[in-house]
Amino acid sequence: MHRLVLITILLLLLVLPALGQSAQQQVMLGQKITSGAFTPTDIAGLKVWLKADALVLSDGDPVTTWADSSGSGNDATEATFPPSYQTNELNSKPIVRFDSGTLTRLTTAAFSAELTQPTTHFIVVKSLADNNHFITDGISGTKRNTFYKKTGSFNNSIFAGTAEINNSNWGTASYFYASIYFDGASSELFKNGVSDASGNPGTNGLTGLTIGADFAVTIFGSLDCAEILIYDTRLSLANRQLVEGYLATKYGL
Questions:
Q1: pLDDT digits (tens, 9 = 90+) for 150-180
Q2: How many angstroms separate the CA atoms of 73 and 107, rounded?
Q3: Angle at 205 between CA 45 and CA 238, to 5 degrees
Q4: What is the residue-averaged pLDDT of the chain?
Q5: CA triple 17-45-192, angle to 5 deg
Q6: Neighbour count for residue 130 (Cβ, 10 Å)
Q7: Rounded to an integer, what distance in angstroms lies between the CA atom of residue 195 and that of residue 140?
Q8: CA–CA dist 46, 222 (Å, integer)
Q9: Domains plus CATH for the chain?
Q10: Residues 6+ apart with CB under 8 A from 246
Q11: CB 152 within 8 A of CB 127
Q12: Mean pLDDT of 225-242
């Protein structure tokens, strides 16, 4: 029996390095070896998970409540100016459409506790217009983790109370997934898994989330959003890439 265990361990040590990350998940002890399927809740600290494919609506319906799938109860709501649900928009999956012309937005209530830095955000989105608009923001002027687009340059920038950290030209024609570390001087912005900007946007925490507008609900955005995830920690490289792989596969990005 001991010899069999030793042989099994040696085989794992020889085989694992040759496997891809997803295959390693299926083989490694302690992982979900029965299916190998990853879901974002497998990683501790998920506080917001909004995904359009969890909504049960018809094409064009108003999204008055975007339910939080993280289990934290951080639903995003709007009764008067809700965005709309659009089917079959991204890899045969739905999205939530925000329109600056009709002032659409969604906002969570205050979180049960402030999400202090470091945190990790993921957003699957496409900007629909070349104007200054907010993709996500906080609900308070002093507690902001902001992701927004700037007019003309097509830059998507992050801000957390001190300075803008600007990336390269991401354009308005295509969907992408953004991964963001809000972590003071070690903050970093990734497009489709590739680092595109870093610096110090500030050290603000986050006490709630606004989507499609700024915290004061005065500047709006035209955008399609498929999914948002926020973790209350800086994810390791391996865990960040697990989430990115999940998003890339799900949305064909």
A1: 766 557 889 999 998 887 666 667 899 999 9
A2: 13
A3: 35
A4: 85
A5: 55
A6: 15
A7: 28
A8: 27
A9: 1-37 (no CATH), 40-251 (2.60.120.200)
A10: 38, 39, 40
A11: no
A12: 98
CB 131 within 8 Å of CB 137: no
pTM of the prediction? 0.84
Query: What is the radius of gyration, based on Cα positions, of the chain?
Result: 19
161 close to 206: Cβ distance less than 8 angstroms: no
Q: What is the pLDDT of residue 129?
A: 75
* Residue 186 pLDDT exceeds 80: yes
Which of 213-216's residues contact partners 24+ apart within 8 Å by CB, and which partners?
213/103, 213/105, 213/134, 213/137, 214/134, 214/137, 214/146, 214/148, 215/137, 215/138, 215/139, 215/140, 215/141, 215/144, 216/141
The amino acid at residue 18 is: A
